[in-house]
Amino acid sequence: MARLKDGFSTIITFQTPQTSIFEKEVTPPSLDGGDAINTTGMRNTAFRTSSPRSLISVGNISGVCAYDTDAYDDLVDCINVNQSIVVTFPDSATLTVYGALKSFTPNSNKEGEEPTANFEISVTNDNNGTETGPVLAAE
Predict the structure, then answer these.
(1) pTM reported for the whole predicted model
(2) Are the C-beta atoms of 81 and 74 separated by less than 8 Å?
(3) Domain locations in the chain?
(4) Which is more confident, 77 or 118?
(5) Buried (b) or exposed (e) across 35-72, using 16+ Cβ within 10 A?
């Protein structure tokens, strides 16, 4: 097992359609077990007790990208469409999640700077009604 030493290049691939975005920054999904369940009762004598939750939340994917104006047509077809989304890491490992493009927000265009946009992907863990968590494939 080797750790990542550089974030370049991390890319996002949508199942459909292929979009014309060019990743500049990518924040992979977080994992969160949630707050512990308080199990303290009247028989406790010195310590409060708790128990971990059973379910895991998978956070959203976000980033900054450059884009082609043709991306608007593709992104309209991608917004709120649940699909397989793949994050490819610099070591060629892939993380496949089910989710939907939540937002694509262009930043202001400025002279002398490449136009960029912020994007956010909601991770749903839902494959056509089947609970499906993230799947990591190491290369």
Answers:
(1) 0.91
(2) no
(3) 11-30+52-137
(4) 118
(5) eeeeeeeeeeeeeeeeeeeeeeebeebbbebebeeebe
Classified by CATH at the fold level, domain 11-30+52-137 comes out as Elongation Factor Tu (Ef-tu); domain 3 (2.40.30)
The count of other CB atoms within 10 Å of the CB of residue 93 is 13
pLDDT confidence tier of residue 18, bands split at 50, 70 and 90: confident
CA distance 42 to 81: 49
Specify whether the CB–CB gap between 21 and 121 falls below 8 A.
no
> 99, 83 in Cβ contact below 8 A?
yes
What pLDDT shows up at residue 21?
85
Q: What is d(CA 90, CA 87) in angstroms, rounded to the nearest whole number?
A: 10
Could you read off the pLDDT of 80-98 as tens digits, one per residue?
999 999 999 999 999 999 9
